[in-house]
Amino acid sequence: MGNLKVDKENIEEVDLNVKTNKLKDKPIDEKVNILPVATDSNIDCCIDYSKKVHYKKCEDELEIVLSGDDNKGVEIKCQGRLLKIKVKLKGICKGRKLALGVLLLECINGEFKTKGFKATNIYIPDDCNKPKCSNLTVGDFLFVLPEENICCKRTLIAKVIVHYTDLEC
Predict the structure, then answer these.
(1) Which are the contacts of 160, defined by CB distance < 8 A and separation ≥ 6?
(2) Considering only CA atoms, which of 12, 34, 33 is closest in space to residue 23?
(3) Could you write out the DSSP letters of every residue in 14-81?
(4) Is 72 within the bounds of a domain?
(5) Quick one: which of 20, 105, 135, 152 has the most CB atoms within 10 Å?
(6) How far is CA 157 from its chain centroid?
(7) How high is the pLDDT of residue 61?
């Protein structure tokens, strides 16, 4: 991960990687929650396979294998792009909880269409040392973008939504 340049004495630099679930060698309490995504894409060929998933009453965990209609595997029919987003935050208070979301939009015929949304909860532990604020990088928010042809240009807009989710003490 890239390092942030910090010139204020009361700010320290911290890297947070959602994938590894660590804040500088200290465990953090966070999960990546994939929220419902409204896509306005009519690229039917890029739905390679689908299967209904049913939970039984009181069943809280389920593992399934998606292996295609013939159980031999899912056939890849289309192309796609991956977009990995990391978010650099500055001046984050230690000992606080954050809700962080990344919204992905595309302007199609003058109208913004939602292409994806990912969110996570983050707890920044208070190590009782000064400084009380940190800069941190949160990642990876990974988006899959179906395409008919990856040789065409495409412009997207990524927006960050971040809030403290606990009361300030």
Answers:
(1) 87, 100, 101, 102, 103
(2) 12
(3) EEEETTTTEETTEE---EEEE---------GGG--------PPTT----------TTSS-PPP-SEEE
(4) yes
(5) 135
(6) 15
(7) 83
Tens of pLDDT along 23-56?
A: 333 334 333 333 334 444 444 456 678 889 999 9
The overall average pLDDT reported for the chain is: 75
The amino acid present at 72, given as its one-letter code, is K
Which domain range does residue 18 map to? 11-46+63-164
List of residues 6+ apart from 144 with CB closer than 8 A: 80, 81, 82
- Indicate whether 159 belongs to any domain: yes
For 64-75, the pLDDT digits (tens) are 898 888 888 888
Separation of first and last alpha carbons in the chain: 31
Distance CA 38, CA 114 (A): 6
Distance CA 114, CA 15 (A): 29
